[in-house]
């Protein structure tokens, strides 16, 4: 495992922990898109079904279990534990416009036409757009809490580091996965505007807002 993948995994884990702590400590999920969190839970569920069929390494298995457990814990906190604080009026992105096309694309463009491979491909495509309900929610409310922007920053950083990881693996291992790379590029592009605002506003102590 190279340093870019390791730091990418740690950035991803940091994002998840930041979000969970934010919700738990404030006893509120205000400003958090429950729809994005459901999509991420779906991403991890469909991607890590290989936990039941193959063992790669202890690290690999532990990280997969952590991602799945944290994803469902977040969904539980939003829709059950702190349901009264969930802002459903602003979390209105039509997720079917993401899930249905992504599902169709996974059937058409994949490495192998088998159930596990199609579900893995579906998860890769879906992850690239799963943050859209959260960004849409921020654009509707006009701003985001600082802790929420930290969560988004580390989530975007994770994907950017994974892109570098794919480049590293291509040059040093001869490994090339077009599906993962294209999806990673799409996801990173979606974060570009946010990264700019994060650096120019949040790091200077200002609140972040996205143009409506």
Describe what you observe in this structure.
The structure is a single chain. With 212 residues, the chain is an all-alpha fold. The chain is 71% helix and 0% strand. It is built from eight helices and no strands. α1 (3-26) packs antiparallel against α7 (146-173), α2 (34-47) packs antiparallel against α3 and α7 (146-173) packs antiparallel against α8 (178-200). The longest helix has 28 residues, at 146-173. The termini are far apart. 33% of the residues are buried.
Summarize the model shown.
It is found in: Cytoplasmic vesicle, COPI-coated vesicle membrane; Endoplasmic reticulum membrane; Golgi apparatus membrane. The protein has helices spanning 3-26, 34-47, 58-81, 96-108, 115-129, 132-141, 146-173, 178-200.
């Amino acid at each position: 495992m190279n340093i870019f993948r390791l730091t990418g995994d740690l950035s991803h884990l940091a994002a998840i922990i930041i979000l969970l702590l934010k919700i738990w400590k404030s006893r509120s999920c205000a400003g958090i898109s429950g729809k994005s969190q459901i999509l991420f839970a779906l991403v991890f569920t469909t991607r890590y079904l290989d936990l039941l069929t193959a063992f790669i390494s202890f690290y690999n298995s532990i990280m997969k279990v952590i991602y799945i457990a944290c994803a469902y814990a977040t969904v539980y906190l939003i829709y059950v534990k702190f349901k009264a604080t969930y802002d459903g009026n602003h979390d209105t992105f039509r997720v079917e416009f993401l899930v249905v096309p992504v599902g169709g694309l996974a059937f058409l463009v994949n490495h192998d036409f088998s159930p596990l491979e199609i579900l893995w491909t579906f998860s890769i495509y879906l992850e690239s757009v799963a943050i859209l309900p959260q960004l849409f929610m921020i654009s509707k409310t006009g701003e985001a809490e600082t802790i929420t922007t930290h969560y988004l920053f580390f989530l975007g950083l994770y994907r950017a580091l994974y892109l570098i990881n794919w480049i590293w693996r291509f040059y040093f291992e001869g490994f090339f996965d077009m599906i993962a790379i294209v999806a990673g590029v799409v996801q990173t592009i979606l974060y570009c505007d946010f990264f700019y605002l994060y650096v120019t506003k949040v790091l200077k102590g200002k609140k972040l807002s996205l143009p409506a």
